[in-house]
Amino acid sequence: MVTTVGTFLQDVQREDKGIERAEVFATDGSKVSDATLMEVLLMNDFKLVINNTVYSVSPPVKDKLSSEHATEMEDVKSLVHRLFVALHLEDHQVRKEKELLQKLDHLKEELLPLEQMKARITDSADAKTSRLLWVGLALMSTQGGALAWLTWWVYSWDIMEPVTYFITYGSAMAFYAYFVLTKQDYIYPDAKDRQFLHYFYRKSKTQHFNVERYNKLKEDLAEAEESLRRLRQPLHLRLPIQEINDKD
């Protein structure tokens, strides 16, 4: 009920060491997949190839089962399948858990030097972005002080009003140019993040930091951790929660 064509062929070769080639073909010449269940294979005629000899196999025709008998057979098949899974589930989970732990250790070893380099690059980019913000504040303060000095001590408001108008209009043009180039509104947090990324990627290039490889390793690490978490869930292991915690 759970035996596949691949398992059947392996058993045949294990039984007779002189068999070098064993394959199953349908009557139309197409090869039957190793994953096909033997129950499905025995529903129709097929060809069994042993080395260079072809055997035509005609399975006996099954009697038509009553609906009640067919239901009972389906229940038996389901029970056998569940027993097979239950008997092999623990070994599979232990093997899979070991593979995931080894993969996690390998990914963490690869990520460790990249994480250290990324931290240095992030600190440098953050410091440059902060300096740029303070420089912008200093320039705006200088501009305001200069306009006030020119308005009250050098010239009058009648002279300085057109100047301030064109400064305001020039600032609006600068903001619109920012939108045209970046397709984003000039919002201070977004502008800061954009400048940070600019410094980050420029520093990464000079430090030979592979951002794509780092992101791929982080994705693989998150995927492996999620697979391990799901594997250790009590419903998957069929164990109480306390026993799982003790095992961890």
Automatic annotation (TrEMBL):
An MF annotation (GO) of this entry: calcium channel activity
Gene Ontology annotations for the cellular component aspect, listed alphabetically: uniplex complex
Bilayer topology annotation: Multi-pass membrane protein
Main location: membrane
Keyword Aminoacyl-tRNA synthetase: no
UniProt-listed GO biological process terms: calcium import into the mitochondrion; mitochondrial calcium ion homeostasis
TM segment ranges: 132-151, 163-181
Residues spanning the signal sequence: none
Family matches, as InterPro entries: MCU_C, MCU_fam
Key words, A-Z: Calcium, Calcium channel, Calcium transport, Ion channel, Ion transport, Membrane, Mitochondrion, Mitochondrion inner membrane, Transmembrane, Transmembrane helix, Transport
Location relative to the cell: Membrane; Mitochondrion inner membrane
Annotated Calcium uniporter protein C-terminal domain residues: 15-217
Record text about domains: The selectivity filter, in which calcium ions are arranged in single file, is composed of two acidic rings separated by one helical turn along the central axis of the channel pore.
Family listed: Belongs to the MCU (TC 1.A.77) family.
Function: Mitochondrial inner membrane calcium uniporter that mediates calcium uptake into mitochondria. Mitochondrial calcium homeostasis plays key roles in cellular physiology and regulates cell bioenergetics, cytoplasmic calcium signals and activation of cell death pathways.
Protein name: Calcium uniporter protein
